[in-house]
Write a structure and sequence with these properties.
It is a single chain. With 545 residues, this protein is an alpha/beta fold. 24% of the residues lie in helices and 26% in strands. It contains 11 helices and 26 strands. The strands form 6 sheets. The chain has a 9-stranded mixed β-sheet. It has an 8-stranded parallel beta barrel with strand order 3-6-9-10-11-12-13-14, surrounded by 5 helices. Helix 6 crosses helix 7, helix 7 packs parallel to helix 9 and helix 10 packs parallel to helix 11. The chain starts with a strand and ends with a strand. The structure holds alpha-L-arabinofuranose.
Amino acid sequence: MTVFTRRDFVTSTVAAGLALAGRPRHPWRSGLADARIDVLVDEPIGTIAPEIYGHFVEHLGGVVYDGVWVGEQSRVPNVGGIRRALVEALRAIHPGVVRWPGGCFADSYDWRDGIGPRASRPRRTNFWSDDPHMQALGNVPAKYDPNEFGTNEFMRFCRLVGTQPYCAVNLRTLPPRSFMEWVEYCNSPAGSTTLAEQRAAGGDREPFGVRYWGIGNESWGCGGNFTPEEYAAEFRRFATWAVPAYGVPLSFIGSGPNGGDLEWTRRAFRELAERRSFDRLWGWALHHYCSAPNGEAVAFDDTAWYDLLGSANRMEGLITSQWQVMGESDRERRVKLVVDEWGAWHKMTTNLAPAHLFGQQSTIRDALVAGLTLDTFNRHADKVAMANIAQLVNCIQSLFLAHEDQFLVTPTYHVFAMYAAHQGATAVRTVTSAPGVTWTDGQKVQRSLWGLNGSASLKGGALTLTVTNPHLTEPREAEIAVRGAALRSVAATTLAAHDVHDHNTFEAPRTVLPAAPQQVAATTSPLVYRFPAASVTKLELTLGT
Ligand code: AHR
């Protein structure tokens, strides 16, 4: 495999000489910039919805049982049965929203199974119980859901971590009436209905005020194998104006395409337009999982490094192409995109417990996937209203890994912590030019990726600029110009790894960690900053006039 950039050809001898002479000690000054980032503070894109920094909790493998829910009697420190370490770490990064209970699981779930006294709740076969990885296991919660974690428990979890709930509705196996009653259970005022009384009996007198409701999940696949026209008709039955609102601005999310399937969106939107249904459709769900051919979470080679980042970078085109097709029917642009499942999905060779279906380790490569994806959402803040990384704990690209009393945060968690400053800020146009990265993939096809990319947002006089450098070995120096503003101070936080295969383990949970924020002395614009190879960086710039 070859990895080279334009700069390799032009300056490889010079670079070697510099290496001998010693690189400058300060990352923000050397005068060798071959990249440029222009932050156009007077070109706002839109407000970055805090919901873009959202999460996903499905009854799948070790996500709920072992990950979130340990039970009140557990020796694992907990708050009313919910893992305390998870609550504390998640709360610290200001999660915008949490989606539950699925995923594919949602279309087999009856919310009534998860209310009332826990001891008398039914045990049900989990949607995922037939997965080949589950075959060798006994009667574990991942196969037979004990329903200990139901609606009240989920709402308490949301309250504890300071976030909003997003409930995924069963469209495949339950009728619209059941959905309406779930809304009633969650949102009807204290004492008003029998379901509100049942909610109170479960410990929650006050309504939950659930705003976000997903109407089916992957309805082209596990959620019913519908055609787009059939799905649009189902959506109308579920989401018609007859659903009682109880004063909550109900926001319904429709089941969007399989990856880049434009026809699903085109046909469903035409059908919805026919019956003027866009006032009921707040968001259109898009799912994108990235992967590399060898599928290994940790034992990847250089090709798989770039292949994964290239696959993650498809998000840009998915957003713009879906948005364009949505606009063919939704002329008034009422409907926004909701990327309610995204992340890097590897093979299950590094999961931490047998019942952790789709469990995987996480390296700096996954952190770059998170950084470049969140930057993409920020750059499209006018189109993307919510996004949910899959999944919160013990599954796919998790922020946390947990088993019994052991717990750690992954490199992806650190990216969410670094990027939290973007939430609620105004995204501003950022133009980056840098020598691209080119590589030959496993099929001997030449592929390329930008050499630096990122996003910027403004809140008061504080500008947050986040940047990923995908090059495995080359740092990238860039001139950063903030048009129309002076720099008062600059602080940099960098996430990189000694070895790109490093990952956090229960024994060594701080192996991949961001460096402490560094004050950058230079306050002239353009500022020259050196982005380390294979890194995610946050620059916090205080602007003056
Ligand atoms: O996140 C795992 C699964 O991936 C979800 O249940 C489903 O929606 C998707 O196919």
